Amino acid sequence: MKTIEVCLSPDLMHLYEVQDKTVVVVDILRATSCMVTAFAHGVDCIMPFADLESCRGMNKQGYTTSGERNGEKVEGFDKGNSPFEYMEEIRGKKVAFTTTNGTQAIGKSIGAMDVVIGAFLNLTAVSKYLVDGTNNVLVVCAGWKGKVNLEDTLFAGALVAKVQEHIGTDCDAAITARHLYDIAKGDMAGFLKQASHIKRLNRLGIHEDIVFCLTEDKYDVVPRLRDGILCC
Amino acid sequence: MKTIEVCLSPDLMHLYEVQDKTVVVVDILRATSCMVTAFAHGVDCIMPFADLESCRGMNKQGYTTSGERNGEKVEGFDKGNSPFEYMEEIRGKKVAFTTTNGTQAIGKSIGAMDVVIGAFLNLTAVSKYLVDGTNNVLVVCAGWKGKVNLEDTLFAGALVAKVQEHIGTDCDAAITARHLYDIAKGDMAGFLKQASHIKRLNRLGIHEDIVFCLTEDKYDVVPRLRDGILCC
C-alpha cells in the first residue's frame, strides 16, 4: 500500500525524502486556492517566484504579475492574492506569482518526483490523482512564515481522510491533521475563527475570500509543476 | 494576559523568540517523564547532554550516566530511559543524561529566560508554576528526530487546556494541540496506539512504561534548568 505523510511546515522539509514522492503543496489562504481557480479559468501557466523583484521583472516578458506580502497586494503588480481576481482576464495568460508562504513552499518542493497544487477547491481531483498514481505522497503545508497553521493542516487532514482506503499512513502529523479535520468539517469557517491568519485576513476585510477558499470540489483541475512552471 | 504558544518540533525553534519566555520542554516517551520521576525520588541534579560521548565521560566525575538512542539503553551506561529505573538508587545522585530527542530539545532551549521540564506526571505542578509566573510561555515538543509526534502534542494540548483561564493563546499549533487532547483525554493509551513512536516502543516491550508516562499528576515537582543543569 502506498503511504501519505504530512509536513506541517516548509521549515521541516529537510526531514523528508521527496525524490521518489508526489508532493502536494497547500496554502489554502490563499495562494494555492488562487492557482487552482486560475487553472479552472484557463490560465496558460503560472511561474512561482520566492522573491518579489524577480517576479516583478516578468512583466517585461509578457507575464501577468501577481504579488502578495502579508496578506496584501503588492503595489505595481497586476493582481493580488484573492481567488476572485483569477476568474476574469486570465484565459490563455502566463502568470508570474509570488506570495508570503505558498510560492516559498513550492520552491522547497523542487526535487520531488512530482509536485501538485492542492486546495479545498480541487480536493477530490487531487485525491483521485494520488490514488491513481504510483508514488508515495507528502503533503507540504505552507503555514505562516514557517509556523504551523490551522487551515493548511485542515486541508492535509481532509486529503488523508479522502484517500485513506487506498493510501495508508504511519505519520503522527497526518493522524493529527485527520483528527483536526474530523472536528472541523461540519463548520470549517466557524472552526477557523480561532485561527491566527483568519484574524489577520479579517482585518483586511476578505471574509468572502475565506468562505470561497473553504469550498470543497468546485474545480476539477490538478496543476502540476514541470521544469519550474505550473501547468495543467 | 500572558500568552502560551506551542512549538511542535525543535526544528521550528528558530521561529520563536525565547529570551523573555518560560520554555516548557516535553518528551513524554520518555526523557522528561524519567527526569520528573528522578526528581520526585530525590535526585540531586541532572545534566543534559546532546552527544553520547560527552555524557559517557561524566562517570569519571562521579555522575550516574543515562544514555538512550532509538528507544534503547546504550551499552556501558548506568541507566536507560525507563522511568522505573529512576525510582531506586537515585536519591542524592548526580545524573548525566542523553537521549535521542529530549536532551536535544533542552539544548535548543538554552537562551530562554526560564526552562522547565514538563510531563503528564507533573502536569498540574507545571501549570501552577506557569500561572503563578509572570513570563509568556512556549511549550517545546521534542518530537521524534525533528518530526512532530502525537504524545508530545497531546501534552502540549493538556497544558494549554489546563492554563487557559489564566494564559491566552493566539497560536494555531496550540489550538491544534488542545483539540487533539480533547479527543484523546478519555483514553490516551488507546488513542496513542496509532502513534508511530508507540509502535516503535511496543516492539521494545515497554507497554508498562507507556501507561506510566501517561499518568497525570503523580508528582508535584517542577525541574528547572540553571546554568545548564536541571535542579528542583
Shape of chain A: globular
Number of E-type strands of chain A: 11
Number of helices of chain A: 9
Mean pLDDT metric of chain A: 95
Strand-and-helix sequence of chain A, N→C?
EEHEHEEEHEHEHEHHHHEE
Largest beta sheet: strand ordering of chain A = 7-2-8-1-9
Oligomer: homodimer
Helix content of chain A: 25-40%
Q: List low-confidence stretches of chain A.
A: none
Query: Most extensive interface: pair and counts?
Result: A-B, 28 and 28 residues
Strand content of chain A: 15-25%
Distance between the termini of chain A: 27 Å
Major sheet size, sense and barrel closure of chain A: 5 strands, parallel
Protein described:
Chain A has helices spanning 31-40, 52-56, 102-109, 123-132, 150-163, 172-184, 188-191, 196-203, 207-213; strands at 2-7, 21-26, 45-48, 64-69, 72-73, 94-98, 114-118, 136-141, 167-168, 224-226, 229-231. Chain A starts with a strand and ends with a strand. With 232 residues, chain A is an alpha/beta fold. The longest helix of chain A has 14 residues, at 150-163. In chain A, α4 packs across α5 (150-163). The model of chain A has no long low-confidence stretch (mean pLDDT 95). Chain A has a five-stranded parallel beta sheet, with helices on both faces. In chain A, strands 3-6-4-5 form a four-stranded mixed beta sheet. Chain A contains nine helices and eleven strands. Chain A is globular and about 45 Å long. Chain A binds chain B through residues 8-9, 11-12, 14-15, 144-150, 153, 170-173, 175-176, 179-180, 183, 194-197, 199, and chain B through 8-9, 11-12, 14-15, 144-150, 153, 170-173, 175-176, 179-180, 183, 194-197, 199.
